[in-house]
Write a structure and sequence with these properties.
This protein is α+β, with helices and mostly antiparallel strands. Helix content is 21%, strand content 38%. Residues 12-29 have low confidence and may be disordered.
């Protein structure tokens, strides 16, 4: 089962538990205006998006209660333009507040529909959900979900996502906050509010145990016709970059006459670390005895320096284990380090906790570090919770270095991190105050070098020997793909018509510090036009995904790693041919040289050569920079369709 599937299963269980716990609150009859319901049920097509499920109305009201709680009341109406099953996408739309708001009290879950006489009816779906049954929504039905959510505003600051994975006709947010609270609002740049108003009002608020009349601020924000989010290439977690309303509580007064407001600050992971230290499945486990098998122990002790020993221990663990593609911070209490070592195929946290233990055995200052993988989403460092993290890695304090290690990447050389934790923040459980560490790799990169050696045969094809060397992250990801899909399937998914690949050979899959070497033969077709022969030699230089970056992109580019793609070619032809046209030499760069492309052709009497480079010196680019990169890649694509032309001499 995939990580996302498990997340959805957990959310679904929580959803059912909430429905069961608060089923006595479900209203026995609809309280929605009949004319409103008629308009919802008659809605037949989304005119600004191709969505087949649409949010007709999303009304949110946020109030500050007398006991320093935020109370959100939310009502969502969804229209189904086709038959739909309750799934993760719908769960995200309906309950996206669960990471920031502590408790959810469901008050209504009704499905509206019209009977054959066009009379409006509804049904309460809570009972079906309680039994964990499959919930199907018919075309034309409208779902209403209402709930109340609360949290203490001295600890957590809710962020309200405006844009969803489904289109939205209307989104409305009403804030009401007393003069005792100072707020800073951040509105989404990507969307324009139809209403953004602020008024002063009076209201009652309990201060020092006494009900008093104080000033309030009423803020109303409304958006209409918001298109759905679209997954974009190199965006690990879509909702991290969704337009959202954010507000930050900057100050709090306990009573109206208080001169200076108290600053509201987060704990920056302190509460998370405290929870981890109390858990029986992590820290106490590290105090148990575990010795690696004697054969490995002998080899480790024979290494003369601690620095080399650190690398070899990391290699030992990553080679011994296989990640089962499951991420969870929890470890079964029945499992021991001995059983994990024997089991070999384990969760990411089990592998890395074992790594921490082995490092401790050999005198290293090693600790667990909590991370949220790129697909799991960003962590708010100021106000984080343990559920915001989904994997443990290891962190080693060695001399003046802080070295993060993730042994889930079986084929990554020391000290490479797995690509799914790059460009994220890690939280160490060490007592050191420097707990947060940004996980990046400034040494390794995704690098491919491709060498083509071709000869023109039968006036029809260039029979070409291809040699590809994959380094660092390219090697790690390619070997993992080869292990999963086999060479045959790897070839099928990588090479497309008209290229026919033969004699595919791979070496160095399990040899550290050497690139993954791939060798094969391919026939590059030649286009005939009277006495002219055209050929395109831009073969397999960089992934097609780089060409798919769109100029209307709305999210940043988060590659995770830096990239370097080099292509070299040497093509010969018989004496009866001569060079007719070579593409021009080209050198381009953007963003102060952070992205560059060059190509150089050279011809002789019986051959031509070609050298091309595409380099990304950064791993992360903003949305504005992404648009510039998209235009840059489009320009490169135009260069890459230019052919070499040779002429047949009679």
């Amino acid at each position: 089962m995939s990580h996302n599937a498990k997340r959805f299963k957990i959310k679904r269980i929580l959803f059912f538990v909430l429905l069961f716990s608060f089923s006595y609150n479900l209203v026995a009859q609809s309280e929605v205006d009949e004319n409103v319901l008629k308009s919802y049920l008659q809605y037949s097509k989304c005119n600004f998006d191709k969505g087949e499920v649409i949010v007709l109305s999303d009304d949110n009201e946020l109030r500050f209660s007398n006991n320093f709680e935020l109370e959100l009341q939310r009502t969502v109406f969804l229209k189904f333009l086709k038959s739909t099953v309750f799934n993760e996408s719908l769960s995200e739309v309906l309950f996206y507040h669960d990471k920031t708001l502590a408790s959810i009290e469901l008050t209504k879950a009704l499905v509206y529909y019209q009977d054959p006489q066009l009379l409006i009816s509804f049904k309460d779906i809570s009972q079906k959900l309680q039994t964990n049954g499959k919930v199907n929504f018919e075309k034309g039905q409208v779902l209403q979900i209402s709930y109340t959510a609360k949290c203490f505003y001295t600890r957590k600051m809710p962020v309200v996502r405006v844009q969803h994975a489904v289109p939205m006709e209307k989104f409305s947010y009403h804030f009401s906050y007393p003069e005792l609270v100072s707020l800073e609002f951040q509105m989404p740049d990507a969307l324009t509010a139809d209403v953004n108003s602020q008024l002063a009002s009076k209201g009652n608020f309990r201060v020092n145990g006494v009900e008093q009349s104080i000033a309030f601020t009423e803020k109303q924000v409304t958006y209409t016709q918001i298109p759905s989010l679209r997954q974009q290439t190199f965006t690990p977690s879509l909702f991290d970059y969704a337009p959202k309303i954010a507000f930050h509580i900057t100050g709090l007064k306990r009573f109206p006459t208080q001169d200076k407001a108290e600053k509201i600050q987060g704990d920056y992971g302190q509460s998370v670390v405290e929870q981890v230290l109390k858990r029986k499945d992590i820290m106490p486990r590290l105090l148990t005895r575990f010795d690696v098998p004697k054969a490995y122990d002998y080899r480790i002790n024979a290494i003369p320096t601690q620095e080399e020993k650190l690398g070899r221990i990391f290699d030992l663990v990553r080679r011994n284990f296989r990640w089962n593609k499951v991420d969870s911070l929890f470890i079964d209490n029945k499992k021991t380090f001995e059983s994990l070592w024997t089991e070999r195929k384990c969760t990411g946290s089990e592998i890395n906790l074992t790594l921490v233990k082995v490092l401790m055995n050999y005198g290293f200052e090693a600790y667990p570090m909590l991370v949220s993988t790129r697909s799991h989403g960003r962590v708010n460092q100021e106000f984080s919770e343990i559920k915001d993290f989904n994997r443990m890695i290891a962190v080693v304090y060695f001399h003046d270095k802080v070295i993060p290690l993730d042994a889930t990447q079986t084929f990554g050389d020391y000290p490479m991190l797995s690509s799914d934790v790059l460009n994220t923040w890690g939280l160490s459980v060490a007592m050191s105050p420097e707990r947060w560490l940004f996980l990046e790799d400034t040494t390794n990169q995704y690098r491919n070098t491709t060498l083509l050696l071709g000869t023109l045969l039968n006036d029809a094809v260039f029979r070409t020997n291809v040699y590809v060397n994959s380094f660092s992250y390219s090697k790690a990801l390619r070997v993992a793909a080869l292990e999963k899909d086999s060479v045959k399937n790897f070839i099928k998914s990588t090479f497309r018509s008209p290229y026919s690949v033969k004699h595919f050979i791979v070496v160095n899959e399990y040899v550290d510090s050497l690139p993954l070497a791939q060798e094969f033969d391919v026939e590059i077709p030649v286009t005939k036009d009277n006495d002219l022969r055209e050929v395109n030699v831009n073969f397999l230089q960089f992934p097609d995904t780089l060409k798919m970056i769109e100029e209307n992109r709305t999210t940043p580019l988060d590659f995770g790693y830096r990239q370097n793609y080099e292509l070299k070619g040497e093509f010969s032809f018989p004496q009866e041919y001569q060079i007719y046209l070579l593409p021009a030499q080209t050198s381009l760069s953007i963003l102060n040289g952070d992205v560059s492309y060059s190509r150089n052709y050279h011809g002789t009497s019986h051959s031509f050569s070609y050298v091309s480079n595409l380099v990304f010196k950064k791993s992360f680019f903003t949305a504005a920079e992404s648009k510039e990169i998209a235009a840059f890649m489009k320009k490169i694509a135009n260069y890459q369709v230019q052919n070499v032309i040779v002429r047949k001499v009679y």
